[in-house]
Amino acid sequence: MARLEKALAWPVTLDPAEEGGFVVNFLDFPEGWSQGDSREEALAQAADLLETMVANYMAEGWDLPDPSRAAGRPLVNLALLIMLSVVGVLNRSLGWAETMPNAHALLRSVWLINLGLLVFNMLPIYPLDGGQILRSLLWFAVGRARSLMVTTIIGFVGVAGFIILALRMQSVWFGVLSVFVLTNCWRGLRQAQALSRILESPRRDGFTCPSCNAAPPVGNYWMCAECSKQFDTFQTQAVCPNCAAQFGVTACLDCGKLRPMSEWIVPAAPQPLLS
Q: Who contacts 143 (Cβ-Cβ below 8 Å, separation ≥6)?
């Protein structure tokens, strides 16, 4: 159970495979994938795969990507705010505010706390939830690397604001928050720079992603789910050169989608007929 919880710290997707079972893919680790015949087996494979990729990142001295987050927490705050607002209206209309002033004061305090949490969570400062949501939205427009670069730069601006608040208010809490955001922004910036280097790598001719039409980069950017060996899957035709494992699908480093190798191949242009 501990391994599964650790795995789910980075969001995992389980996509139904054409031949049956599920394909495992991590949004934050597009170079690795696995699969399982059932949902339970796929989740177990996801835990093994994540441990392998994290160990490989640490061995290579690379910064681990920050886990992508959904908009869950802001939505929870918003839902609570709406429900508490409805209860507050009923409280006043039915006269409960006068008959139970302590309960009304408590309700108002909880409402204000949720409003503050909602505003804080929606700040577009990486790695806060608002920054993660902004990164997800920008991903579709400018791609994975640029979206992370933009949100980390905005995060550095937010750090400056938190530092000013910490000094003016002499707040230890804002000081700790500034350090937290600063370290995560620095890690995100280094990750964005690494992703940019991948995007700027030479592209392999004869292959394009069926989902986003991007040609794959040339280099050992894919990881074998069996032996953790990094290799160029397009050079070896989706076969690990270390353990000879054959992979049915290949991850796109630009959009993160998994597609069979056969769908990546660009058909040769027809030769003109000689008259």
A: 199, 254
CB atoms within 10 A of CB 256: 21
Q: Which residue has the higher pLDDT, 59 or 155?
A: 155
Before 67, cis peptide (omega within 30)? Answer: no
**Is the pLDDT at 69 greater than 60, yes or no?**
no
Contact 77, 114 (CB under 8 A): yes
**Which helix (H) or strand (E) is 41 found in, with range?**
helix 39-60
What is the predicted pLDDT for the residue at 154?
92
The rounded distance, in Å, linking the Cα atoms of 175 and 256 is 36
Kindly report, residue by residue over 70-127, the tens digit of the pLDDT: 555 677 777 888 888 888 888 778 777 777 888 878 888 888 888 888 888 788 888 7
221 and 234 Cβ atoms separated by less than 8 Å: no
Using CA atoms, how far residue 227 sits from 14, 59, 230, 238, in Å, is: 21, 14, 9, 14
| pLDDT tens readout for residues 41-53 | 878 877 777 777 7
Query: Measured between alpha carbons, how far is 23 from 244 in angstroms, rounded to an integer?
Result: 19
All residues at 6 or more sequence positions from 233 whose CB lies less than 8 Å from its CB, including other chains: 222, 247, 250, 261
How far apart, in whole angstroms, are the C-alpha atoms of residue 147 and residue 135?
Answer: 5
- Structure-block tokens of residue 260: 């069979």
CA–CA separation, 156 and 7 (whole Å): 29
Kindly tell me if the per-residue pLDDT of 148 is higher than 60: yes
